[in-house]
Design brief:
With about 250 residues, the protein is of the alpha+beta class. The protein has 2 domains: about 190 residues, Distorted Sandwich (Deoxyuridine 5'-Triphosphate Nucleotidohydrolase, Chain A), CATH 2.70.40.10; about 40 residues, no CATH class. Helix content is about 15%, strand content about 35%. A hairpin with a 2-residue loop joins strand 4 and strand 5. The longest helix is centred in the C-terminal third of the chain and has 18 residues.
Amino acid sequence: MLHYFKFRDDLLAPVPAKDVYVKRPAGKGWPEECPPIRAANGFGFDLLANFNLTFVQSRGNWRVIKNVVIESDFHFAGNEESPGAPLTQQYAWFWEKGQKLPHPISDNVYAEIRNQVKVSSFLFLKSDPNELLYFTDLPNMNRPWRAMTALIDADWYPASYPWHVVLELDRDVKKIAIAKGEPLCRVIPVRRDTYFAKEMAPGEFDDFFERGQRWLATHGRVEHEKPDGAGTLDITRTYVRQQVRSKFVVI
């Protein structure tokens, strides 16, 4: 399970991913009509942009237009005697040339990653024991920016700050706008486990292939029948009916 707490109550919570993100004009054959692609699009949770964001590039350097800094609606106190105060959190920030913390960046490395920006989700996140959080870009989306993929050990690492998303901005674009409510990235809880890959033995493959032929013969509908009695089998609707989709629910 993905557990979250908002930096401020009026901010956006994670939402279940959607099957379709792009409104298409009339026509047949759009990628979103493919059941496996729809299933991938709708797998996981989306973290949303809490405010409008605009990035402008000039001579290879990026900056944020009207960056946002907000306060938490809870107070933090360093000890029991202190009355405490709200925490502050910047919305977006770039790597700094010559930085030492949170880790050093060499000048030659900075030249390669200065088009990356960190955007706060304003969400404290944790997962159940032996569950990791897989951060990645939205599948099958073409945008002038992409979320860097990361795998977070959120079951044992108690981060005392809201998690951020690292976005890589397209160097060939001068201005990039991200609207409030637009998905920044996809988050998928996954099990920490050992996963195997093994080649099938010839007999195992024979059984697998024969089972596939029987399934086609049972569920396929002949389209474009040829004179010799053969034809192309349509399984689209059958695939959808038998497909078992995962569900993602925000409680």
